[in-house]
Amino acid sequence: MDRNTFTGLFLIMIVLAGSFYFFKPSEAELKKEQARVTADSIKKAGVKTTPAAAQAAAAPTLDSAALKGPFGANISGTETKSVLENEKLKLTFTNKGGKILSVEIKGEKTYRGQPVILFDGNANKFGLNLNIGGKLISTNDLYFSPSKISGTSLSMRATYGEGKYIEYLYDLKPNSNNVAFNINLNGLNQVIQSNNVTLNWETVLLEQEKSLKNEQRYSAPYYKYVDQTPDHLNIAKDVKEDLTKGKVEWIAFKQHFFSGVLLPKDGFEKGNLEVKVSTEPGQVKWYAANMQMQFNQLASQNYAMEFYFGNNKFSELKKQGHEIEKLVEMGYWPLKYINRFVVLPVFNFLEGFGWNYGLIILVLTILLKLVLSPLTYKSYVSMAKMRILKPEMDEIKAKVGEDNPTLLQQEYLKLYKQVGVNPLGGCLPMLLQLPIVMAFFFFFPNLFELRGQSFLWMHDLSTYDDFIKFGFHLPFIGDHLSLMCILMTVSTLIYTYFNNQISGATGQMKYIGYIMPIIFLGVLNDYPAGLNYYYFLANMLTFGQQFLIKKMVNDEKIHAILKENKSKPQEPKKKSKFQSRLDDYMRQQQQIKAQDKKK
């Protein structure tokens, strides 16, 4: 063997020896492989493993350094559960994270007849994120030591060391939807390396209602800055928003008809909220909040808070104070004021009689129509005048021709002025009624009182009545047809027909009114039966009003009055600025038209 061959073999041996030394599996890897081989052999033998055994096999091996580090005694453990309950709530706690694992609202059922559970399972997180020794510690991963103080109070404690611990105190008040919550940080001023601590809360909303689409439409995280009006994140898409404009008074994880609200006594310094629309079956949305609280480096630091877990009934939320009742969406300005200060008080008054909610909606609609009857009367008379004037307007049109619309409008205005008719007289009363009609569009879908209330064939006035089920999805319509929505649409079409007869509408205007009811059929088919029921009643009562007004109003008398007005000498009146500008504009348009003809 020559020298070069010997040298090459020697180097190869060194490389092989080094690779065996540096790339040999660690003790943890050997244990992991051994667990895998054992699991494979069990599987081949046909032996089933229990979830607990599988979890134990998959549990990471903790080294001695981790056990001696921050909260070393609380890093591992066995999950146990505790329960606190009163007449309204049943709270299940887990020692893993020391958090509320699930919340059941007593006395309420889902559409499928199951108990209403706001959230449940380990996908929900609640705890502190602490900077200790340059390392982020999440209490959600720690195993706390539970201790029941009384039948309604529970303590959860995680120990850092002697005299140093985190304690969560929960106190469920009797016959209440409120849970007092206190965080005690004892002796941790020596180890927390920050001037603030972060509270992390994540929740998966569970489906409660018949229409998942509607639940998602009316669910969103809400928040309120101190001395400001509550606001919420976008309801239609995934979004994350930083809350940095001031102290945050409270945050709320709002579902369509139920909410979880967290109210810190001293507010949150700042934070962020996040929402994602869930695509998993039985889930509505995922919420997350990371809120910062000031840490004053005290030997004993306390954070006092309170939870509200309950329904979104306006009166119940109002009792909580802090403008939490604004979780109930009442619409935009001015609709929210109409709903809050007019419609809701009347509804609550009628509710006091103990009537069926279908009857309450009927009486509410009758009262509304009585209040608006002067406007309906004015609108009817104005449209009747326009109908009576139509023959004269047709004569003017034939005389002037359609090729000069500016001159035609001038002649029309002269006629209106002579007979004393306002062409907008029929529209203005209807426009004044429009905000009230639109206000109900927000009122009924957000009204908790209608939830689960039946009337006639409608089993739940807070959701759609799927009188006809297709078993498949159709574009624009969906997978069902709502009978009340059909009745509403038919009544609107009939109303449009008679309205055209009264106003004498012709041409395109005659047919435009028929398009909107067809559009509303697709839009409102998925909306609550209570809303469609109200619109149906409003149409039927309008028919009744117009029938009575028709008996009171004589077309011949109106025609005689118009003739008399036309025969009176027209006294010159000072034109308004608007009228002067309108005349100038029409004169200019007429001149331009004349010049175009010369060319």
Automatic annotation (TrEMBL):
Gene Ontology cellular component terms for the protein in this record: plasma membrane
Which controlled-vocabulary keywords does the entry list? Cell membrane, Chaperone, Membrane, Protein transport, Transmembrane, Transmembrane helix, Transport
The transmembrane residues are 6-23, 359-377, 424-448, 481-499, 511-527
- Domain Membrane insertase YidC N-terminal residue range list: 84-333
Q: Which domain of life is it from?
A: Bacteria
Basic and acidic residues compositional bias, start-end? 563-573
Subunit composition and interactions: Interacts with the Sec translocase complex via SecD. Specifically interacts with transmembrane segments of nascent integral membrane proteins during membrane integration.
Q: What is the designated name of this protein?
A: Membrane protein insertase YidC
